[in-house]
């Protein structure tokens, strides 16, 4: 029972992080009036969030390996609560941007810190499913921002709504302090001083492990399409280019969340039972994303609603699919550097998302409108990322298999599954 209590407490911190991440999105009109900012200026908040989140992943991973999950979850919750308190009371646009950057830093350390608790508290066969459940349940934060937070914003006003969210972060800090331990035996992570050279050497070592890069390219190839769709260009594409109403577009985004939840459970069970088939599953998800977009973009004019529904369902599987990247990081890295590896993996999808969002913006600006033809051209930038990620997965997968055989010494009887289990026992589990 104790592992589930520790995980649930960490999960609460992640749910609050997702809530904090998405509050500005549902309060866009209020934010525009409060800060006197145009929609274009407010869109920089989204880009800033992604930049800070992606850029902080490796430093966050290093801090996680040094100080442990509990310290980082507390720090993240504190930063996010401070950012939300600042947003609650300021009417200055520069101050709001700074507060959002602080919030982004707190968000950046939370997810990988919660993920690091999972292999410490659960046996190896449960880890993939619990990892998927972490990502799935974390999306409850988006529901909290869309329903109770939005209702509070409309009824009680900006300051009350944002103070309430910040207070929830404080509650999360108190529960983390009381209930979370880094490991069952309470082992404290070493905090010996480390030189800059040693830090850089550690980062290089973790990155050069083929399993880390396999996780990076997995996260990159599966996550970016649905992230770009949900965070920035999905609603404009569905309404302006495809002619759907705002209500229907919102329903499709809700369908995306339901699909991700359902797919996450299936993927978690599958990867737990068939760990030696994980890369094949990832390649299938990437291929399905590319095929679905190809069909939609190849049609002249607007697509039928049923095809857009199918597109949203297919790309939404990429969200839980990206979680397999963290499982690769766990498999091919010892626990002492797992935080750094997970931070590197987490960069993959968000860096790709940022580049695609910006590239699409440039193309749409050059086109001068949000027509079907303009979006058709803009969405094609995805193919470059899929090609890079697929090549990276195929190359690093072979290198990872060679590393396993070298570590084990020979091919155990039983094939790939036995090889993987022997490798985890002798290397990653230590």
TrEMBL record:
Give the keywords, sorted: Cell membrane, Membrane, Transmembrane, Transmembrane helix
Its topology with respect to the membrane?
A: Multi-pass membrane protein
The superkingdom of the source organism is: Bacteria
Query: Where, subcellularly, is it found?
Result: Cell membrane
**InterPro entries for the chain:** MFS, MFS_dom, MFS_Efflux_Transporters, MFS_trans_sf
Q: Which residues form the Major facilitator superfamily (MFS) profile domain?
A: 6-401
Pfam families on file? MFS_1
Q: Where are the transmembrane segments?
A: 41-64, 71-89, 95-118, 130-154, 160-180, 214-235, 247-269, 281-299, 305-326, 347-364, 376-395
PANTHER family with a match to the protein in the record: CHLORAMPHENICOL EFFLUX PUMP RV0191, PURINE EFFLUX PUMP PBUE
The entry's protein name is MFS transporter
Starting at the broadest rank, the lineage of the source organism is: Bacteria, Bacillati, Actinomycetota, Actinomycetes, Mycobacteriales
